[in-house]
Design goal:
Elements: H1 2-26, H2 47-52, H3 57-69, E1 90-94, E2 101-102, E3 117-123, H4 130-140, E4 146-148, H5 151-156, H6 158-166, E5 170-171, H7 188-206, E6 213-214, H8 223-231, E7 235-237, E8 241-242, H9 252-266, E9 269-274, H10 278-293, E10 297-303, H11 311-321, H12 331-334
Parallel strand pairs: 1-10, 2-7, 3-4, 3-9, 3-10, 4-5, 6-7, 8-9
Helix pairs in contact: 3-11, 4-10, 6-7, 7-8, 7-11, 9-10
The structure holds zinc ion.
Length: 340
């Protein structure tokens, strides 16, 4: 009898234990910790939302890593609704092995443009207002360009840089902080850091690797850094004609006239502009129409293979971003008194 009673007790205990395990493993728990694997996060989680979240530096790094794997969805390229648009006459794919150079102001080996062909390039973005206006002007003419964003700007406005990529444009890099890489005081290591951190910042913003296309700030080429870029298989871009849109006395009319006068003289070329500049954004609708009326055709440059950022620079950038440990939300939305 005692034996049977003992068995019964054991059975009850086992049943309770099994039920407990079942409850623990299958019942929903509102106090459960969120999954640690950031890969389970939606790929399109916005960076603005990230800034609103209460974050620790450690979790930021995890999200940074997750963003790297989360390429933005490619938007289907719609048919051009403007029958008289400038458009894109051809797309060229660049094998960047060994670091080829483009733009006859500095690199004269690769003469690939045919008469009346131009490449539109924009530096120093992304920037609110101006970059979206440039994107609209390009979109209105169903044409594509090549962008060289500044790394810091990419971290300030990642959502704008994502719009650039989503619109089908090519995105390279233009250093982390727009440092003159040919300055007297800059070391080879500092120049390398500017290059790599710039690319890592663009990757951070895009959620995918940029094109291995690079432009030196102020077109200040440094032989050691050029050799380094060659070893990283990054194509270097100068230009054939400068719009001088960054000058203090610039105006939309001046930009249009400068570009048209120079391109009419050269007959073709890579055009240097700045989506960072308001006057460029204002000039662009007229400039694109003038190019069309002048019989010019736009060539889009794409890379055969994407750039590969270095993990140590991705990690260093994540630490440098120093997202706040608490959000910018008002205290009242974060802390609620629930009892006194
Ligand atoms: Zn620049």
């Amino acid at each position: 009898m005692r034996h049977a009673f003992g068995l019964m007790l054991a059975s009850v205990a086992a049943a309770v234990a099994i039920a407990g395990v079942w409850y623990w493993t299958s019942a929903p728990r509102s106090d459960a910790a969120p999954p640690k694997t950031m890969a389970a996060k939606p790929a399109d989680q916005s960076l603005a939302k990230l800034a609103d979240d209460v974050e620790t530096t450690a979790s930021l790094q995890s999200r940074f890593a997750a963003l790297h794997e989360a390429a933005p969805p490619a938007l289907p390229q719609k048919a051009c609704p403007n029958p008289d648009a400038l458009g894109v006459s051809r797309v060229v794919e660049i094998d960047t092995t060994g670091g080829p150079g483009f733009g006859f102001e500095h690199f004269k080996q690769l003469d690939f443009l045919e008469p009346k062909e131009v490449v539109l390039t924009f530096d120093d973005g992304p920037w609110p207002g101006n970059t979206p206006a440039v994107l609209k002007a390009l979109d209105d003419q169903c044409t594509k360009a090549l962008f060289f964003p500044i790394g810091k700007h990419a971290t300030y406005h990642p959502e704008i840089l994502r719009q650039v990529l989503a619109a089908g444009h090519t995105v390279g890099a233009h250093t982390w902080s727009h440092a003159n890489l040919n300055g007297k005081k800059i070391t080879d290591q500092a120049a390398k850091d500017e290059v790599e951190k710039g690319f890592s910042a663009v990757r951070y913003a895009l959620g995918t690797n940029p094109s291995p296309f690079f432009r030196f700030p102020q077109l200040e080429h440094n032989p050691q850094t050029m050799a380094y870029l060659g070893s990283r298989n990054v194509a270097m871009f100068s230009c054939d004609l400068d719009s001088f849109d960054f000058r203090k006395d610039s105006s939309p009319d001046k930009i249009v006239n400068t570009v048209m006068t120079k391109v009419d003289k050269l007959g073709k070329g890579i055009i240097l502009m700045h989506d960072f500049q308001k006057n460029t954004a204002l000039a662009l609708p007229t400039l694109l129409r003038r190019l069309k009326d002048g019989g010019y055709k736009v060539v889009q440059m794409k890379a055969k293979t994407p750039f590969s950022t270095l993990p140590e620079y991705d990690d260093a950038l994540a630490k440098d971003l120093k997202l706040p440990t608490v959000s910018a939300r008002p205290v009242s939305s974060v802390v609620q008194t629930v009892s006194r």
